[in-house]
Amino acid sequence: MAAIGGGCLPPDDPVKKPAAPDELIHTWTVGAHVMARTASLTEVEAESFRGRTIAISASGYVSPWQGTCDEAGRTKRTRPLGDVVADEELSSNATGLPAQVTEYRLTCNDRHNPLPLVMYVAGGRAVSCFNGVCYLMTAN
Question: Would you say the pTM of this structure is higher than 0.70?
Fold first, then answer.
């Protein structure tokens, strides 16, 4: 009589945890702005973007500044907010973001859209700068 050996089957795959939600993938709404010392827009022009949105998906984005990008590469790094304020030449740190932010740089794979979309994100709030104005946004 033949014996049936146990343990011949491969082990079960470990249970996979669902992916953490991506803090960047939202529709972001501009609520306010902070002017840089080198802003190329006037206060009135910058204010005209209040209520405008940036929509970020898993693959691309739609922005009032960079336009539509269906496929974008993405990099991510943590930065001190003070470095962002200095890099963007802001006259004040009135962003409302904490001391550490996550910088996302989205680069469109379409060579006709060369400007990257850079977002500084923390806790459902974000800042994106264009033409010397940093727009303060909340996630919808």
Answer: yes
